[in-house]
Design goal:
heterodimer, A: 272 residues, mainly alpha, MetI-like fold, 2 domains, B: 253 residues, alpha/beta, 7 helices, globular
Chain lengths: 272, 253
């Protein structure tokens, strides 16, 4: 058992090992923060835990005089709303377009090169165009997310459609299925699990686009808040917000995994 | 009634001739086994009969009517693999054909019609020995059970012709023997014409009432693609005698 790949950690040591990097990072931060505060009590770059608690309780519990809302929750709902609308539209567009273009040869020949090119356009580069055409409101933010991730989902769905064995499609035809019936009864159910994974993989990009759009123009939102308080070096707000965004992303990822596992036929793989 | 006729059928891919001028009449209720070496065009033969591919020249007729140019319910198929739907339970798999034929938009039946179809599907599953597995998904079945399911699914729409593309090639010998028995029983119960492609000679002679071999009749070493396969041998097999005897007995008794 000399080789590193053959040494396996036990269940308990796996948990301990997994927790260690988190503990190390937090400890390193605490030590560095203390050291900086010992030199300069007014240090803003690495605030201590008390500063986080004070700043966050203000944002979470106190009503802001300007907007009449609790800012933390207003920001969270604004960003989640944008993300949800963008992801939802992208998923529906990706599913419908991906299935039709992937399954019908004439549509495929017409649109596949176009989508391949479209998915290579950097979305942030067209953000100014979106702002000019759709204004600075919610519409341009939703369009940015859709523009950023729908081409990826379309291509992924098309790939999954192409993976369905030809035998199944021929069999369906010998059972009397029309093109529409095959889309509804054979293609759609087998593509759905892949759509869920595809949306899951797009989460990171979707957050990127939400925060980028909010950084430029918004009245509320997690990304808006971070970029707003950046001017005051308010690390006591920025760091908790980053942790909160990370947690939200993790929770959404986990929820999508549960949805995937809830689709009965994903549990039984071919050859099982 | 299902008499299949190949009328001067040739299939080429570019320069390569695969099948050359096939003329063949397959009688009603025949069990035709097609054998031949790999690459001889057995599968192309079957695909043309299925309309998955079109002949380059010539035509295929069933009961003197040219077959449709795409797969249709008059010809059922069981492939070696992937011919059941992994996202539907065993029972729903068997119900799919009749549902598609009856409900063009939704592909689903409701109410009394659905109950009636479910009973018919369950009876079919009982017949092929999958009665107790109705609520499982195909991936939970063994290879032999999946092929039973594929056959049951194909029979639900009462095809005139059942095509089998090396259906037992991936099964172990014991399971294969059971499947042979089942197929012979279903063949005599449903009175249909079966065309089976296999590379197993003993299987061909055990099941078929007629066995044909396809192979290249000439070989040009400088241009191996120039000559396609033809029917090199054509046998009447023992099961045909057995069938004739059975019919005579039935007529007498």
């Amino acid at each position: 058992m000399g080789r590193a790949i053959n040494r396996l950690p036990s269940r308990r040591s796996k948990i301990l090992l997994g927790a260690m990097p988190f503990i190390l990072v937090i400890a390193a931060y605490a030590i560095a923060s203390d050291a900086r505060h010992a030199v300069d009590a007014g240090d803003k770059l690495m605030p201590g835990l008390d500063a986080f608690r004070a700043a966050m309780s203000r944002l979470i519990f106190d009503i802001d005089r300007m907007t009449g809302q609790r800012l933390f929750w207003a920001d969270t709902w604004a960003s989640l709303g944008r993300l949800g609308i963008g992801l939802g539209i992208s998923a529906v567009v990706g599913l419908v377009v991906g299935i039709f273009v992937g399954f019908i040869p004439y549509l495929r020949a017409t649109f596949e090169p176009f989508f391949a090119a479209l998915s290579l356009v950097p979305p942030l580069a067209v953000l100014p165009i979106l702002f000019i055409i759709f204004g600075l409101g919610e519409l341009s933010k939703a369009v940015l997310i859709v523009f950023g991730i729908a081409p990826f989902i379309i291509r992924d769905v098309m790939l999954r459609v192409a993976e369905i064995p030809r035998e199944q499609i021929v069999k369906a035809q010998t059972l009397g299925a029309s093109t529409w019936q095959m889309i509804l009864g054979v293609v759609l159910p087998q593509v759905l699990p892949r759509l869920v994974s595809s949306v899951r993989l797009s989460l990171g990009a979707a957050w990127l686009f939400v925060i980028a759009a909010e950084a430029i123009t918004a009245e509320a939102g997690l990304g808006y808040r971070i970029f707003l308080v950046r001017r005051y070096l308010a690390m006591d707000v920025i760091l908790p917000y980053v942790v909160w965004i990370t947690f939200l992303a993790f929770a959404m990822d986990y929820a999508l995994r549960l949805i995937y596992d809830a689709i009965p036929w994903t549990r039984f793989r071919e050859g099982g | 009634m299902a008499v299949i006729r190949f009328d001067h059928v040739t299939k080429t891919y570019g320069d390569t001739v695969v099948l050359e001028n096939i003329n063949l009449t397959i009688d009603d209720n025949e069990f035709l086994a097609v054998v031949g070496p790999s690459g001889a065009g057995k599968t192309t033969f079957l695909r043309m009969l299925l309309s998955q591919e079109a002949p380059t020249s010539g035509q295929i007729l069933i009961d003197d009517v040219p077959i449709a140019d795409e797969p249709m319910p008059d010809r059922g198929i069981v492939f070696q693999r992937y011919s059941v739907f992994p996202h539907r339970t065993v029972l729903r798999n068997v119900m799919m054909g009749p549902e598609w034929l009856a409900a063009p938009v939704t592909g689903r039946l409701f109410g009394a019609k659905r109950t009636e179809l479910r009973d018919r599907a369950q009876a079919m599953l009982d017949r092929v020995g999958l009665g107790g597995h109705a609520q499982l998904y195909p991936a939970q079945l063994s290879g032999g059970q999946q092929q039973r399911l594929a056959i049951a699914q194909a029979l639900m729409t009462h095809p005139k012709v059942l095509l089998l593309d090396e259906p037992f090639g991936a099964l172990d010998p014991g399971t294969r023997k059971e499947m042979h028995k089942l197929v012979l029983e279903l063949w005599s119960e449903h009175q249909m014409t079966i065309v089976m492609v296999t590379h197993d000679l003993s299987e061909a002679f055990h099941l078929g009432t007629r066995v044909i071999a396809v192979d290249k009749h000439r070989h040009d070493p400088h241009a191996p693609h120039r000559y396609g396969s033809v029917i090199t041998s054509d046998f009447e097999a023992k099961p045909r005698l057995a069938r004739a005897l059975q019919r005579a007995e039935r007529a007498a008794g």
